[in-house]
Amino acid sequence: MADKFTSLTSDLYRYLVNCRSERDPVLAELAAETEKLGPISLMQIAPEQGAFMTLLARATGARRAVEVGTFTGYSALCVARGLPEDGHLLCCDVNEQWTALARRYWDKAGVGHKIELRLGPAVDTLRALPADTQFDIAFVDADKPNYRNYYEEILKRLRPNGLLLFDNVLWMGQVLDSASSDESTQAIRALNDFLASDRRVETVMLPVSDGLTIVRKRAAGER
């Protein structure tokens, strides 16, 4: 099968971003304030990715969600927007300064009551959850060497047909660079290879921003 994709120019990318229905002034304001942090602001997800995550949460009827890696709260705000009024999003992060900014914008957007923030190592937070905890949708955008650990802890708490999203799975193209041996690149490459063969789930990788993998947990007995 011939390669079938459209390379994006800056103009075409801006066109793509503008052709979304979501228009949230609070998100735009949060993005602008995050940009003032400097180069670290690149950790924020892209606007079309945020809109996609809101849509997924709404389309799947998600009520309970978890996020690992919150930064200034853009992605959490997007997911919370897609949850019902009594929905719940658990956010796991280690940085009090960045998440303080997040809290301010969650409240401004009117979704603060849906979000619970827990500061500390996310693996510890996840392992400490009650045994009957169950999530409908999850998003992981944190330290890459722990991606596999986050996967295992979330998967056991994900309902059948629930979705788990991994960010940065293309890692700016470094996943194809055999000379790149840093820990994060190796971790992402290993996760990508593992997910493609894990029979507990169904996966697809999409060229959204820096690569987004969507994992669906298979139902019991499903082949």
Label the CATH architecture: 3-Layer(aba) Sandwich
Query: Approximately what portion of the residues adopt beta-strand conformation?
Result: 15-25%
Domain tally: 1
Largest sheet: 7 strands, mixed
Shape: globular
Helix-strand pattern: HHHEHEHEHEHEHEE
Secondary structure: helix percent = 25-40%
Q: Provide the CATH top-level class.
A: Alpha Beta
How does the helix and strand content classify structurally?
A: alpha/beta
How many helical elements?
8
Intertermini distance: 26 Å
Q: Could you name the CATH topology? A: Rossmann fold
CATH superfamily: Vaccinia Virus protein VP39
Low-confidence blocks of residues: none
Number of strands: 7
Determine Rg (CA atoms, Å). Answer: 17 Å
> In what order do the strands lie side by side in the largest sheet?
3-2-1-4-5-7-6
Structure report:
The chain is an alpha/beta fold and 223 residues long. It has a single domain, classed as Rossmann fold. 39% of the residues lie in helices and 20% in strands. The chain is built from 8 helices and 7 strands; from the N terminus they run H-H-H-E-H-E-H-E-H-E-H-E-H-E-E. The chain has a 7-stranded mixed sheet with strand order 3-2-1-4-5-7-6, with helices on both faces. Helix 3 packs parallel to helix 4. The radius of gyration is 17 Å and the shape is globular.
